[in-house]
Amino acid sequence: AATKLASAEKLMYFCTDQLGLEQDFEQKQMPDGKLPVDGFLLCVDVSRGMNRNFDEQLKFVSNLYNQLAKTKKPVVVVLTKCDEGVERYIRDAHAFALGKKNLQVVETSARSNVNVELAFSTLVQLVDKSRGKAKIIPYFEALKQQSQQIAAAKDKYEWLVSRIVKSHHEAWPNVSRKMQPAPEYQDYVYLEGTQKAKKLFLQHVQRLKQEHIERRRKVYLSLLPQALDALVPDLDEIDHLSRAKAEKLLEAKPDFLKWFVVLEETPWDATSHVDNVDNDRIPFDLLETPAAEQLYEAHLEKLRNERKRAEMRRAFRENLESSPFVTPGKPWEEARSFIMNEDFYLWLEESVYMDIYGKHQKQLIDKAKEDFQELLLEYSELFYELELDAKPSKEKMGVIQEVLGEEQRFKALQKLQAERDALILKHIHFVYHPTKETCPSCGACVDARVEQLLGSRFIRPAEQQRQQHRNPLLDSNIDRINLVILGKDGLARELANEIRALCTNDDKYVIEGKMYELALRPIEGNVRLPVNAFQTPTFQPHGCLCLYNSKESLSYVVESIEKSRECTVGRRDNHLAQLPLTLILVNKRGDAGGETLQSLIQQGQQIASKLQCVFLDPASAGIGYGRNINEKQIGQVLKGLLDAKRNLNLVVGSTSGLKEAASDADLRVVMCLMCGDPVSADEVLLPIL
């Protein structure tokens, strides 16, 4: 209770953190000489102490206060350890203060740093009356404000740490130096201290490390199925092994080190390997984790399922081969109920069985065709009495089918009548025109193979040059017809489907006893778009069928032809300008909008004249409302395209012959195939060149 002290050259303050380390901290000493005391903080511990009676403590405080009151100096009662305070003790302390005149009480907690500064500022205000009066806040209200302030400061500090610290390798000394100028760091350290700031930093670093480890774990686990597929793809090799023996087997594989790494230290996430992002080899001890064990079991299950699916595919093929209900050309819908069982559906999708069935059908059909061809050769006497043009009458075809009808090889193609008839026609054509083109063996014909063999070894320079510059569009030796079908509102697709129905299963069509490959390209949209172009890198058109059934569809045909020709103007390969066209009125639409059948015919004739193409009206083509082009008319159209194709090839071939002749200095006269007169090479070639 003394008001005058003498303590020269003593430290003004210190804390327990500084004990033994005083020289490391800033030092402030007491003033020299006497030190006057201006006021007192009377501290009362309101926590529950062992072997301590609070009533006796309060008596001591009361006696002490009586001594302080004699000094006439301001006194503030400070209740300490309120964070552990006993409610009765706090209430009794307030009752003690109320019994004294103008004695103020401040509830504090040094541990929580609540109202500590308020206790001193309250005393300062009592000493210096010029200062504003401090508002005394109860402990719990102050604690709430303090908590809110700390929480806000903590959020800002954590944001600062997350912005500065991006790697789990960062150290606290370096980071704290970077953060010292930041107000977020200063505020939080002021409220909570450096140790708590460091603790939050370490938590953030640990979180970054765990996130990095988890990313690496996901990378390793994503590679593990690939490693197992590469090292142990055979179920028989691992199905009977325990996990330990399976790991030994993996280590013995030649490519083991390509996929795995055996670390000297474990676990893998505590080694430097986790930071080697350029090395994605899987730590071998990762296989001991539950996630890796699940992937290993999934690998085993996958191999077992694959084996079961392979068994199902094999059983299904065997079922197909042994089933009497599967015959050449039988649709899947008809055969499914006879060959499928419940086990098949459990393991594979129906599309897989359909694919197997399709391949099996192709084998059946090819074998049936081969057998039928042998049958035709065995009954060669049936084809001797045909006329020289090899066009059998309906009666003769009936006789042929009647004679062959009892043969099983004939019946095998019962569901492929169109293809069977095509084979008969092709055989007849071969009997009267036995060439490599009409040979039933097709590409396996000995004549064709000999030609190919000789041609691949003995090619004349001039022939080689012609082959290099040959235009596949104009090559008449190719047994293929590329046909564009132009028409809007479904007309093109409908006619394409009807033509395909007349073809064999492999899109072949018989013209004058000869088989041609027929490729159809129906177009119904804007021809300037690549998807609707007449000509593509894999499709060179030989002709175009232009369909219309109204004024709008006729306008679409005209605009599309003009656009296609415009797109190729000036190009060296401008084949579309010479493309044969056939304009067809496919049906009539009544009188809607003033249109009649007669007016549509007249408009079609005018457009055909403008486009210089063939026009087929309903009367000549056998077409009417709801009726489509018949088979005879389609054959006539395709034959016309073949003739036009040959003529075009003839013209271009003559020009190429002139160019070859011009390159030969000794040859002065050539035969111009376009006019048939012998002329001077200079007279013909100079204008052309």
Automatic annotation (TrEMBL):
Residues 293-320 form a coiled coil. SMART domains: FF. Residues 475-650 form the PG1 pseudoGTPase domain. Keywords: Cell projection, Coiled coil, Cytoplasm, GTPase activation, Nucleotide-binding, Repeat. SUPFAM superfamilies: FF domain, P-loop containing nucleoside triphosphate hydrolases. The keyword Cytoplasm applies. It is found in: Cell projection; Cytoplasm; Endomembrane system. This is RHG35 protein.
